[in-house]
Design brief:
Elements lengths: L5 H4 L5 H8 L14 H14 L11 H14 L15 H15 L52 E5 L11 E3 L20 E7 L5 H10 L9 E7 H4 L3 H5 L2 E9 L12 E8 L1
Parallel strand pairs: 1-2, 1-3, 3-4
Antiparallel strand pairs: 4-6, 5-6
Helix pairs in contact: 2-5, 3-5
């Protein structure tokens, strides 16, 4: 059957992780298949499940080994004859990580995350949020809804919502457009200086080549605090830009948030990826 979680299977299945699930010699550890995309995904999983606070660098070092050992001990994942867990990811460990991440992706993310898990967003005066005509697709209460929008931004420079509809006004973002034919009265990102943004989001809009180039241009350099990019959309729209998102930087969170009006339809789920840009 293979792995199931979005983290371990998107945008493509990682063959190293799939091999680890079925083959003892394919286990992963310090010095053993210990560098690559498969390690990066394991690190994200440990951060999400156990708050391991690992640097997501794709290198299986001592810190990752410690986090794996702690994860296995907490869940009693022991090989025959073991009293305490070892520091490698083998068949049982990758199966457990995949199952827990799959459950997490299909549940509501914590409000301490980087994205809003609900239409309500962070506590704020929601009755002041925009309505039609500025908002083309308002929530059930007629106001801009906040499901999958950024929370806890870096916030040390401009916060830009490309093709936003006011859903992030309350947290200090400003709506912009990257292409004049879709501006609908929004100012253009072409008026912004290079490296001006610490936080950029795009929600339920395609990522064109123009938009991607503008995201890269206005993103703040890591030398002065970096830039966090958040992208959220349904699965149909998300099929194209996943590789583009991966090219922007290091994915630090991935979530799937069910639609409140169609919770049993996976195609209506909102997929959200949060990236620390290079």
């Amino acid at each position: 059957m293979g792995l199931n979680s979005m983290l371990f299977t998107s945008p493509d299945r990682d063959q190293q992780l799939e091999n680890c699930l079925v083959s003892d010699p394919a286990h992963i550890g310090e010095g053993i298949n210990g560098v690559g995309e498969h390690v990066r995904r394991i690190q994200i999983a440990l951060n999400e499940l156990d708050d391991a606070d690992l640097e997501v660098d794709g290198r299986y070092g001592a810190d990752t080994g410690d986090a794996v050992e702690d994860y296995k001990n907490a869940r009693g994942i022991l090989a025959p004859g073991q009293v305490t867990a070892d520091r490698i990811v083998g068949k049982g460990t990758i199966k457990s990580l995949d199952a827990e991440i799959d459950v997490l992706e299909k549940s509501t993310p914590l409000p301490t995350s980087f994205v809003s898990p609900t239409e309500a967003g962070l506590p704020h005066a929601h009755q002041l949020c925009p309505t039609r005509p500025r908002v083309a697709n308002p929530g059930p209460d007629g106001h801009a809804e906040h499901r999958g929008s950024p929370i806890n931004p870096i916030g040390n420079a401009m916060k830009i919502n490309i093709y936003g509809e006011g859903e992030t006004d309350y947290i200090g973002f400003t709506d912009f457009a990257t292409e004049p034919q879709h501006a609908r009265g929004r100012p253009m990102t072409s008026t912004l200086v290079n490296g001006c943004a610490s936080d950029i989001c795009v929600r339920s809009s395609p990522l064109s080549a123009v938009t991607l180039n503008e995201i890269r241009r206005i993103a703040q350099s890591a030398l002065v605090g970096g830039c966090r990019f958040t992208y959220g959309s349904n699965q149909n729209l998300f099929q194209t830009p996943r590789a583009d998102i991966l090219s922007l930087g290091t994915v630090i969170q991935q979530h799937r948030i069910a639609s409140p009006t169609d919770p049993n339809n996976p195609l209506a789920d909102l997929e959200v990826w949060v990236v620390d840009m290079f």
